[in-house]
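Q: Focus on the chain.
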Amino acid sequence: MPGPSPGLRRALLGLWAALGLGILGISEPFWADLQPRVALVERGGSLWLNCSTNCPRPERGGLETSLRRNGTQRGLRWLARQLVDIREPETQPVCFFRCARRTLQARGLIRTFRELVLKALQLLEPRFWSLAERPDRVELVPLPPWQPVGENFTLSCRVPGAGPRASLTLTLLRDSQELIRRSFVGEPPRARGAMLTATVLARREDHRVNFSCLAELDLRPHGLGLFANSSAPRQLRTFAMPPLSPSLAAPRFLEVGSERPVTCTLDGLFPAPEAGVYLSLGDQRLHPNVTVDGDSLVATATATASAEQEGTKPLLCIVTLGGESRETQENLTVYSFPAPLLTLSEPEAPEGKMVTVSCWAGARALVTLEGIPAAVPGQPAELQLNVTKDDDKRGFFCDAALDVDGEILRKNQSSELHVLYAPRLDDLDCPRSWTWPEGPEQTLRCEARGNPEPSVHCARPDGGAVLALGLLGPVTRALAGTYRCTAVNGQGQAVKDVTLTVEYAPALDSVGCPEHITWLEGTEASLSCVAHGVPPPSVSCVRSGKEEVMEGPLHVAREHAGTYRCEAINARGSAAKNVAVTVEYGPSFEELGCPSNWTWVEGSGKLFSCEVDGKPEPRVQCVGSEGSSEGIVLPLVSSDSGPRNSMAPAPPQMDESSCPSHQTWLEGAEATALACSARGRPSPQVRCSREGAARLERLQVSREDAGTYRCVATNAHGTDSRTVTVGVEYRPVVAELAASPPSVRPGGNFTLTCRAEAWPPAQISWRAPPGALNLGLSSNNSTLSVAGAMGSHGGEYECAATNAHGRHSRRITVRVAGPWLWVAVGGAAGGAALLAAGAGLAFYVQSTACKKGEYNVQEAESSGEAVCLNGAGGTPGAEGGAETPGAAESPADGEVFAIQLTSS
């Protein structure tokens, strides 16, 4: 049969050359690949396409085509898809992957041909086409289920019937990576089918990687195309199993009813997440929580022991991976060991009672009570004792020991005995004598031992003041004295007398050491100043300008007049005061000052002159007697007496006696001039003016009149001057009385503040509602505080300010809001203590001692006092009223509520 014409041959060669063209891409670090790139398929036939990439972790990928799909297989970096019923003359499938924000593409070409064209081609090459068969079946031999890492495995690819074999090429692929390629060039023309086998070393990175086989029948040298087909991919699973057994961490012993963690660990596993773990305790399977960190696996479960498992049980851990397993077994002993039972026949017993203490801890345990073991295991240990107060709060200890597989396990129990006994007041907890300095806040403590805990109440034996035990408060001299402390509980009571001494610095007041003293010439007198203070101060007086101390009685003479400096000293401080001594003496005439014979010339107009010496200054009057004009009063030159034995002119002279340097006025009194005069001849004229600002003329003395004045005495022979300090004293006024907060709940705190204006400084005193106990006062009594308010603290409080010129008071109401029933049902011991304190306080304030003022301290420069709190002063219900100095005070309602404690 003749061959084809040269023109037809060139046309067919051009057609197959066109069919053999591939779509080329630019080389990139990461690429996408489509196999086969060019395929010639009979119309209506099917084809497998393999789409792959070398991107390590592609974000997404796919195969775009308009052809029908029958099946898809997928891996991390590959995609295989079967296209069926291919009828389009030409299609271009696109393989794509998204990698590192870029899209990788590979484009292919599929063309179809009709059976008539194929027959035409067979006519052109009858001998060749009688032997040709496409690689429609490409088979990859199945891989082992698991392949150990580091060991070889075999890849086998078989393409039955494809040929001729000389045009066939087989390639084994790991994903898209070519492992081995083999062509069968030189094989006989009639040889069909082929097989390719390779040995591959399993690696960790091969785990879950797809392996496949590509068969290519290249008929292009014969003027036909390239026919390619791929096997279905097969996935390989690799693993690594260490030769060591798992490590099992578990307790040796497990008590019935308890739970303990059990941990099984194995390192060197790959892939560790795919390993299986089996944990069991005896017949009980445990359910572990498995965590993986790299190649390490940790399985943790909770083992719970029951009474049925008592004894030695196997604890088993098995780890499986890739058909291999590793296991570890340990023994765990389940035991029962109840806690010791420690009992007291009477946990709370009165003193002198017999008490039995017993301890037991199960049938196999040996118990020891207070160091004394029981006779044999399983027997109780007992102890009997006749309890005393020293056994109160005594602890008893029981130890139980159990032998478990040669190891001694221990449990213990303790209990405390309470012994009821009467109160005891010892010197350590409640000293017999206290000595404190006045002023700093202290906490008064007198504690008693006893069970139940005693309540302690300290009050004066006469039912007077009550000590606020356990509260921080100022120490005032009014607290000094002897108190009877009584401790009470349900078992009895104890009584003890304690003495409180308050030490304070000396004070020189106007009563014990007046500012002005007058003596009479020729009499006996002594300059003695009495000072208040604890310990008793020593007092010494020295005349100004001299060092001689005035001691003992004196025979008063005129030279004893003058200013003395008196100083009181004790361990707490000192006080000083100036005392002015005036010596008075009777009038005396001397011939020089008042001649016994006068001779005048009638009509000369002279006046009589008769001077006399005396103190206070005498008044001189000359009256005619027998032999003269009887009854006629002679006109004198001056009624002021000049210097003794001196009729000569003299300059002015002022001293402390004639012009005191310190003078006091009372606000509201009739305005008067300074008491300042001078001696001299002729009689000096004295003028006083205020320094800095002129004194306004007023009808009554005002506080603005206080200040420094300069008095100047002048006559024809000279001048003399003195500086005089004027102080204005005034009655007290309570300027402010406030509560913070104005309303308080039971158990809360509140404070009352009282501020007074007065000179000399006022002494502050308070009147509280009946039954209001445990009141705290500041050092100057200006603040009254209550901690832990009760219903009895609600009501009207009165603050009174008192000095030598009067008294003024104001009142304020405090409300303690809240459920009074809660207050009323307070502890019995606390209620008893409050009732006792209230009764003692009421008894004291109605006592003769308070009425007589036995606890009052006379007014001192420091304005400290201890006064009875009462309702004196003002009309009941009034806001406040001033009282005249020295007016007797009595309660407005006839009842004294409390004792006011003040400090100097």
